[in-house]
Design brief:
With about 400 residues, the chain is α/β, with parallel strands linked by helices. The protein is about 25% helix and about 25% strand. The protein is globular, with a radius of gyration of 23 Å.
């Protein structure tokens, strides 16, 4: 069975991903992960996360995928020792030195090679397997044809993982020095400031010794974008993904919200289950894409599964994100006798707001916010306070963990 792998920037996001269909999550500690600005997990929380996941029959992969400098290795050893007995299902690494440290300090733990390792061939994959890796997260620049060739030339025991959704990087497999060069924040040690997303004023670009070779620059009223990548979205291509022999479908987004973790997992879970249930009769449901349009994203594309980086850089034409629908509340209970649902506020909720209910295995369900009351049963017109508990009359049953979002 193909694995659906979701991002977990903190405990809330992890639980949302699992509830909405993820088979596994990848997370990082507060050090040595490529998303240093995420909430991330303390060593104690990593132990808690693994216990929670394993109780559900799910998996946790620990990202230790930065490229540390020499002076950081003492701290790395201390960190690995602190999580060595947590029972994580695998450690994701990019650097040979880190690989060696993980084998020494966490013997017996599976090792997955990160996309930062830049594996683009069967030879790369076989090399890392001989060192002890059990899975390769392939470089994002590979096409379906490339992946099929690699799969046919490697050991059947070696697993392949690819990103299928989320942010892409203009640099090869996310190895970039732009942030370090501009403001001293090393992207390869988890501190990327995303300068590729900034708006630059450019008049003409040409190479000094090749003045006839001009870099095409298009300036729009919104700005000029020569490095800012589109986001990947492969929801329309589940059959091709499965049939290429990929073991694990990976969603990017540890910096995104719990709502993002839930909705992306839910959409891909519905699509993947539909295909695996009946491959011959599988039909793509446009509502799955509608769900993914409701989370924070840039323009969508299909990465390089169909297009070569030489032919298109998959650069966005617009600045910023297409904002996600408002994450209004999360359900904490439902009284069948009174048909009232208990919610915890995430953003201001008002009687009469257009809303949708997100429940695992279903696209958004139209939901009327009516007869709102506080915990004492007093009628209220809105829930304006963070984490405020309130109840509403519910025409449909609500399950704990269901999400209430804005309809627009």
């Amino acid at each position: 069975m193909t694995e659906l792998l979701s991002p977990a920037g903190n405990m809330e996001k992890m639980k949302a991903a699992f509830r909405y269909g993820a088979d596994a999550v990848y997370l990082a500690g507060t050090v040595f992960g490529m998303r240093a600005a995420a909430d991330n997990f303390t060593p104690e929380q990593i132990y808690e996360a693994v216990q929670y996941a394993h109780a559900l029959g799910k998996k946790v992969y620990l990202a230790v995928n930065t490229i540390p400098h020499w002076e950081e290795f003492d701290a790395l050893e201390t960190y690995l020792d602190s999580v060595a007995s947590a029972g994580v299902d695998a450690v994701i690494v990019a650097d040979p030195g880190v690989f060696t440290m993980v084998k020494q300090h966490m013997p017996g733990t599976a090792i997955h090679m990160s996309t930062q390792a830049g594996c683009v061939s069967h030879a790369d994959c076989t090399f890392w397997q001989k060192q002890g890796a059990s899975r390769i997260v392939l470089a994002r620049e590979l096409s379906f044809a490339d992946i099929r060739q690699i799969k046919s030339r490697i050991s059947k025991e070696l697993e392949l993982e690819t990103f299928i959704h989320g942010s892409m990087c203009v640099s090869f497999s996310s190895r970039c020095m732009l942030s370090e060069n501009l403001i001293g924040r090393d992207a390869n040690r988890g501190r990327c400031a995303q300068p590729c997303r900034w708006n630059y004023n450019l008049f003409e670009i040409s190479e000094e010794k090749r003045p006839e070779s001009r870099f095409p620059v298009e300036e729009t009223p919104l700005g000029t974008f020569v490095m800012s990548s589109k986001d990947m979205c492969m929801i329309e291509h589940i059959p091709e993904l499965v049939e290429s022999g990929i073991t694990s479908f990976k969603i990017e987004g540890r910096m995104k919200s719990a709502y993002y973790a839930a909705v992306t997992a839910n959409a891909y879970r519905m699509a993947l289950d539909a295909y695996q249930k009946d491959p011959d009769g599988y039909q793509y449901d446009p509502r799955w894409m509608s769900e993914l349009m409701g989370v924070s994203h840039r323009e969508y594309c299909t990465g390089y599964f169909f297009d070569s980086p030489h032919d298109t850089a998959q650069l966005t034409a617009n600045t910023g994100y297409i904002r996600e629908k408002a994450y209004l509340a999360v359900a904490e209970g439902y009284d069948c006798q009174t048909a009232r649902a208990l919610f915890r506020q995430r953003n201001k909720v008002t009687v009469g707001d257009g809303a949708e209910l997100i429940t695992p295995g279903s696209p958004g369900i139209p939901y009327e916010i009516a007869d709102m009351r506080d915990l004492d049963g007093n009628p209220i017109e809105s829930a304006p306070h963070p984490n405020m508990l309130f109840t509403v009359q519910s025409a449909v049953p609500v399950r704990i963990g269901d999400i209430l979002r804005g309809a627009h």
